[in-house]
Amino acid sequence: MAEQRARWDSRLIFLFAAIGSAVGLGNLWRFPYITYKFGGGAFLIPYLIILLAIGIPVLILEFALGQKMQQGAIGSFRKINRRFSGLGFLAAFVCFVVVAYYAVVMGWSLIYMLGSLHAPLPWSGEPEKFFANNVLQRSAGIGDIGSLSVALVVALAAVWIAIFFCVFRGVKSIGKAVMVSMPLPFILLVILFLRAITLDGALAGIAYYIRPDFSLLLSGELWLAAISQVFFSLSIGFGVLIAYGSFNPLRQGITRNAFVVALADTGLSLLAGFVVFGVLGHMALVQNVPIEDVVKSGPSLAFAAFPQALSLLPLAGIFSLVFFVTIFFIGIDSAFSLVEGVTTVVRDRWRRIAVPLVAFIVCGLGFISGLIFTTGAGLYFFDIIDHYVNSYLLVAVGIVQCILVGWVYGAEKMRNYINSVSRMKIGRWWDVCIRWVIPLSLGILMAMQLITDIRAPYEGYPQWAQAIGWGIIILPLAIALLMAFLPSRPSPAAQR
Questions:
Q1: Mind listing the pLDDT tens digit for each residue in 227-258?
Q2: Quick check: is 494 in a domain?
Q3: According to the model, what pLDDT value does residue 2 have?
Q4: Which of 54, 318, 439, 459 is the most buried (most CB within 10 A)?
Q5: For the domain that residue 416 is a member of, what is the CATH number?
């Protein structure tokens, strides 16, 4: 007798899990920075267009694919055409690599959470030096790996233990975890927002955040940035949402779920922008410097400039603790969803392996893989691997899965299934997006990035470091192609 597939306890828990997967650390620092960089309010126009034309259609596709096939990424693609099972492997590989360094960022937040309990705050006055020297113990360059940071290794271990207990029973433990971990970041961000808008200089910071420069709408770089942000923010191409969809009953509505997830993800990004720039406006006023001098991208915004801004607030320790708890819980949802994207693939292929054992192996390998990011050169490896995975592998998965569903399975056939189970219907516009708009847009994005990386090595890293990045792309692609041509025995689920 075939094993009954695990199910979410309710639609609400599924939505919480899917929103938790989509909402991540990128919402907290990347969205506000890119919005500022590309003209403030002007960026929101292409962002919302891309969200509607690419983000939501692919969300619908991934939810529908998992729910229709009742399989994770590899099983779903194999059911359409066995030669595309390697695409599921690619998605699982991306999940594993991303969560390996994603967990390290959460480790940083744990160190800052503990630091928030000290008075005065240990980073007061010199946040960038504290981040580089005390947290990262950063070396002079990627060639100087240095030693492991004991504090970071301990923090990383704590993060992976937390992830394991969120996933060790599959969807049952995830369902319990997300009931707390998903709403909490929204609540904490609202608290920070209410405090931020009362600060002197906050309105100037918010105006800086949303000020439009409509001349930038003619910039191709602006539209490429919008595609990249939507794609990354919604967790498209990881296979996670396919796995989550597979735990739904066959007749559950799909379209409305996708719109709810997209709305929640976008809402948190916008809210985070108001919080970040409200506080940075206050920081600029206190330090008597232009706002652009305190705004930086990436980890430095959350772990260097922002701690300094928080230290300027009354009750700085409390608000710092709230902020870094928010970062941790935003990260934990995305982290265990990425792990679930891997464990679902393994469990769908080898049903007899117990879920806790699969979770333990994946979490253990994730911890070991993440140790390189706890060295003195960890941030450099973080940067280069993040660039190559997100610029190429993630986009490649998105392109091929749209081609697979749009042309091999049939966009109209999938749309008919979606409409048969959903009250909110979708029209032929969805077919056009899946078959033409999305593959072409993402293909252009990837081609332009490839030309840029060929002309000038990314961030000036040495050739051997660039080779690591290209190797992370070429090796899984080669394995995926090999899977397409090797004979394979269908899994029990695929035979049904």
A1: 878 877 898 889 999 999 999 999 999 999 99
A2: no
A3: 47
A4: 54
A5: 1.20.1740.10
